[in-house]
Amino acid sequence: MLSFLPAPILAPLNAVLACLSVLFWGGLIILLAPIKLLPIPALRRQISALCNACMHGWVATNYGVLRLTTKTRWEVDGLSESQLSKQGWYLVLANHLSWADIVVVTVVLRNQVPMLKFFLKQQLLYVPVMGLACWALDMPFMRRYTKSQIAKNPALKGKDIETTRRSCEKFKDLPTCVINFVEGSRLTRSKHQRQRSPFRYLMKPKAGGIAFALNTLGSQFDQLLDVTIVYPDAPENIMWALLQGKLDRIHVSVRTLPMSEVPVGDYDSDKAYRVTFQHWLNGLWLEKDRTIANVINQQQAPAPFYQELEPTGQAESR
């Protein structure tokens, strides 16, 4: 254990180890990616499996490094009762506080579900290196058209869903777990106040993105996983505190919901369904807010980060 090292040494050490991990595992994925261009389905499936194994190696390395260099306690509720499987299809909804969330969620779920996939904007496909790696990892790319674009060219209506659905064709035969950070942005005090969030510890959920994911892949999901991330003693910069070894606890609550509880419909065209879906999502967020409050209230002195957040508006997802 290297947790005895002072923070000025631990932070750069962890940063260097994290970069080396990305270079190693990411480099392997980049080397494998061109092989997927060959028109041999069986070979492409094998390469996809190898790329996912590389991502699993990256996640395991992250956890190993944190166990080696920090004393952070990982507390996970609800996972053992969830009866998850790597052969299943899942949609994960999570709150978002820090870049550390990606590490936390992938570490917690790494041995429970298929390797996580993130919905990415179509433009990222054309970013050098990153786009190739994400394509090799079978990340689903989505292209959204604005209402003004559709008004100018009505032929675009429905094209975004159809394009994304085609990019997800491979998931019909490949167990998949897709994650969505529903708030669309990391929680900060200024964003929380500017948004006039009605939630004590959360920003308003953005219903449009998750409705789009459900409209694209909803019929394939077995369960919905409601994942709540809490850093009870978190300072303002959670990622930096983690690298410095100053984060005492990471708490993750996992709750499974049957897909039958999720409202189904056309979010863009059906106003009544849109209201129903927003109401359902706000209810989910209210429950998540209570979960965070229960975890924080167990501490004698909650983190200033959470104490500074105050609900100011009405529950209304977008």
TrEMBL record:
Residues 90-232 form the Phospholipid/glycerol acyltransferase domain. It holds the Pfam family Acyltransferase. GO terms for molecular function: acyltransferase activity. The chain crosses the membrane at residues 12-35. Coiled coil: none annotated. The keyword S-adenosyl-L-methionine does not apply. InterPro entries: Plipid/glycerol_acylTrfase. PANTHER family: 1-ACYLGLYCEROL-3-PHOSPHATE ACYLTRANSFERASE-RELATED, ACYLTRANSFERASE YIHG-RELATED. This is Phospholipid/glycerol acyltransferase. It comes from Ferrimonas balearica (strain DSM 9799 / CCM 4581 / KCTC 23876 / PAT). The lineage of its organism: Bacteria, Pseudomonadati, Pseudomonadota, Gammaproteobacteria, Alteromonadales.
